[in-house]
Amino acid sequence: MNRFSLSGGIVITPSQERFASLRIADGLIEGIGYPFADEPNIDVSHCYVTPGLIDLQLNGGEACDFWAQPDLAQVQKLSAALLKCGVTTFLPTLITADLDHIQENTEFLESIGVGAQTEIDAEFGLIKSCHARMPGIHLEGPCLSPQRPGVHPPKCLQPLTVAVLEKIIRSSVKLMTLAPELDHSGDALAYLADRHVLMSLGHSNSTFEEANLAFDRGIKMVTHTYNAMPALHHRAPGAVMASMLDNRVSNCVIADGLHVEPAAIKLLIKVKGVDNVVLVTDAAHVGTSQGGLVGSSISLADAVANVVNWQLSTFPEAIRMAALNPASLMGWSSKIGQLNSGNCADIVVWDQASLAVRKVYVNGELKYDG
């Protein structure tokens, strides 16, 4: 049995923050307590020990562009770069494009193992050649509002119908961002719900009433809250206000200080509570590097540090928003997202003073040692 302990650090769990040793055995978390007497004991003094971060919206990065035609080598480079930032699980995100292109990229991701799941918890969504877990695909589009396309090509937008969904929804698709006001009958939303696809309102021109109807029909999430949707307004409450007032709905937000002002994130956290806010990057190959909001250029570790440094949350609360909350939304929390006995040993060790990522483990294997 491969067993070891991480000792001397502050272990962050959903219910506590305390000095303790985290015990790992055969790729799983065995418990929190005293270190093993006769097994390796790794000193992580002056560090936080947290679950691996989970990014539900990631379009790519410097090494890889999921909007184009990536290959395995590019995905491997992206995966390695994400591990250095504490991300042990992510959803490759495909944006609006020609339906053939969406199908082609979906099939490519499936061919390298994205969305493939085994019955062994430790292997959940794990593609060994890519290091980080990829349990599925996030489709951001193509069924979006023509009034709120953002960077999505308007010519490729599609109606939200069962006929369109039948062409692009496969078992690997776990999350879909859509404009629910396009589905007047509710048939398309029912189709997605029947196939266990988590539905998220985004790039939507929904009114307050349309958003509430969508939540009643099963939408449980909002994609990059505030962005690509009507602004929060006291005389025209739209989807943002509707989501803030509905406890069934979780709100994703990009905490880079460019997409959303810190004060607006503070309002979101205050109204929704840390249990219902999810930090995402929406990182892209281009990102904000050329001056526009074409995705972001931050890592999820940056987002965690930002909300802490902006005094919007404590560090444990930021970790909840970047690990447990996305895992719970996706139905993964019995495997990843929290440091519980029996969960996969996906672990990040952070410098307590700087919040820099020092070590990253996936399945109990050291993948990054900074």
Average pLDDT, rounded to a whole number, is 92
Low-pLDDT stretches are none
**Proportion of residues in extended strands:** 25-35%
Q: In terms of quaternary structure, what is this?
A: single chain
What is the CATH superfamily classification? Answer: Metal-dependent hydrolases
Q: What overall geometry do the principal axes of the alpha carbons give?
A: globular
Q: What's the SSE pattern?
A: EEEEEEEEHEHEHEHEHEHEHEHHEEE
Q: How much is the radius of gyration in Å?
A: 20 Å
Terminal residue distance: 26 Å
- Give the helix level as a range of percent: 25-40%
Main sheet: strands, sense, barrel: 8 strands, mixed
Structural features, described:
There is one protein chain. 25% of the residues lie in helices and 25% in strands. By secondary structure, the protein is of the alpha/beta class. The chain has a single domain, classed as Alpha-Beta Barrel (TIM Barrel), CATH 3.20.20. A hairpin with a 4-residue loop joins strand 1 and strand 2 (17-25). It is globular and about 65 Å long. The model has no long low-confidence stretch (mean pLDDT 92).
Q: What's the gist of this structure?
A:
This protein has 370 residues and is of the alpha/beta class.
